[in-house]
Structures are given as C-alpha cells and as structure tokens.
C-alpha cells in the first residue's frame, strides 16, 4: 500500500476514520528524512491494514506548528483516533516494526482509561 500525503484539511479525517495511522513528518531538505522514507514505504507495503501517511512540514508549516513538530523526521502513531506514539528521529526498520507491533497490541480500553485517569488527576 502506498503512503498517503496528508494536509491540514485531511489529517483529522484520516486519523478518525482509520484504526491505525502512522504519520511521518518530513521535509525534502532533511537527510535523515530521506533515509527514513524508504523504510516507511517498505512498512506500508508490509502492513496494508495500517494507513502510512506523510506530512511535508515545508508545505504544511501551520499543521506542523499545531502538532508541535520541532524536529524531523518525527513519527506519530494514532490508534482509534488517539495519539499513542510520538518520537523524533529516523528509525531503523526493526525499530519501526517494534512500533507497529506495539501499536497493534495496545488494549485501547486500557489506554482510554489511563487518559481519563490522567485527566482526572490534573483536575
């Protein structure tokens, strides 16, 4: 499955309408991004059940700012509309596979309960 380009207009719908979405924030001038790109593409081929999406931070500067992207590449993973992973830096293929496996294995009822408990604790 090919990766999908996301924009400020399409990101929310993509995240909410798909079970798992991985988003790679990148820029054309970024050498680590260029090294991570093929790894991300390979993952999209290996996991057609997961939406692999990319955000060009140069074209989508406002979106990158809203999501507090301060370093690229940054990988975010969403499961059932919830941000469950957020890390800057190019991942090697085995590390990306670990992220995919971990996101797939999440108990989302438990995740939502933890989020609710954290929100209640903050008051």
From TrEMBL:
<keyword id="KW-1015">Disulfide bond</keyword>
<protein>
    <recommendedName>
        <fullName>Thioredoxin</fullName>
    </recommendedName>
</protein>
<dbReference type="InterPro" id="IPR005746">
    <property type="entry name" value="Thioredoxin"/>
</dbReference>
<feature type="site" description="Contributes to redox potential value">
    <location>
        <position position="32"/>
    </location>
</feature>
<keyword id="KW-0813">Transport</keyword>
<feature type="active site" description="Nucleophile">
    <location>
        <position position="30"/>
    </location>
</feature>
<feature type="site" description="Deprotonates C-terminal active site Cys">
    <location>
        <position position="24"/>
    </location>
</feature>
<feature type="domain" description="Thioredoxin">
    <location>
        <begin position="1"/>
        <end position="105"/>
    </location>
</feature>
<feature type="active site" description="Nucleophile">
    <location>
        <position position="33"/>
    </location>
</feature>
<dbReference type="GO" id="GO:0005829">
    <property type="term" value="C:cytosol"/>
</dbReference>
<comment type="similarity">
    <text>Belongs to the thioredoxin family.</text>
</comment>
<dbReference type="InterPro" id="IPR013766">
    <property type="entry name" value="Thioredoxin_domain"/>
</dbReference>
<keyword id="KW-0249">Electron transport</keyword>
<feature type="disulfide bond" description="Redox-active">
    <location>
        <begin position="30"/>
        <end position="33"/>
    </location>
</feature>
<dbReference type="GO" id="GO:0015035">
    <property type="term" value="F:protein-disulfide reductase activity"/>
</dbReference>
<feature type="site" description="Contributes to redox potential value">
    <location>
        <position position="31"/>
    </location>
</feature>
<dbReference type="Pfam" id="PF00085">
    <property type="entry name" value="Thioredoxin"/>
</dbReference>
<keyword id="KW-0676">Redox-active center</keyword>
<dbReference type="InterPro" id="IPR036249">
    <property type="entry name" value="Thioredoxin-like_sf"/>
</dbReference>
